[in-house]
Design goal:
mainly alpha, 95% helix
């Protein structure tokens, strides 16, 4: 039972970490695109 809880928590942490990493990358990428668009005009 305890081992299953540990696996579940680890899985959730990995998913959350990947989501946070993806969100941060997407945010910086969208910021870069906005700056690039502002420089074009």
């Amino acid at each position: 039972m305890f081992l299953e809880d540990v696996k579940r928590v680890r899985f959730v942490l990995i998913i959350r970490g990947k989501f946070a990493f993806f969100a941060k990358n997407w945010w910086s990428l969208s910021n870069f695109k906005q700056i690039h668009l502002l420089e074009e005009y």
